[in-house]
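cache lookup: miss for this entity combination. No prior model stored, computing from scratch. Input as submitted by user K.M.:
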Amino acid sequence: NAGVTQTPKFQVLKTGQSMTLQCAQDMNHEYMSWYRQDPGMGLRLIHYSVGAGITDQGEVPNGYNVSRSTTEDFPLRLLSAAPSQTSVYFCASRSLAGPSRMDEQFFGPGTRLTVL
Amino acid sequence: DAKTTQPTSMDCAEGRAANLPCNHSTISGNEYVYWYRQIHSQGPQYIIHGLKNNETNEMASLIITEDRKSSTLILPHATLRDTAVYYCIVSRPTGAGSYQLTFGKGTKLSVIP
């Protein structure tokens, strides 16, 4: 299994540009989520999904859109990038099935985004 | 979700046990305690979680006080590769069996040769 993969690893945008951060998992996990991490800070939840066709907002959703058309993919869209969105973005997934529904989340390697 | 308090940083000698404390005095009855760590700039890695009882796995042990207001993560034999930021997180189940993790600033553990 590749686990959770994210592309691109690095990205530089100009203010106002749009882009999509890709996230995919091959573990058939129902739950997927996006976090951002700013320097010296912990991770903050942006959006999450508990299954295909179901998404919800986290702690800091403004400026970001998500969709979940398949179990495997959970892209994060920046509609009009702003310097305040300069951050490292992590995607994560976990299973909602099985004997323990409270188990670990698996994180991707992150996408480092700079908005000029 | 309950707020957690952790020391900003800790040092531990290589080969010794690392004991990382966490206070969560406002924890509710159905909230779990999770520990994750983040090595350098990698994605966080799950370590262990528990509700009331002490837990142990191949990575660490989690000791939760009887009143559940604090816990300690124990790395029994710290190695240089355990140098990381360790996050203590308290979270409750939400709808559809899910839960949310709210990461604070964590404890920066430095393992010293």
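stored under new cache key. The mean pLDDT of chain A is 92.
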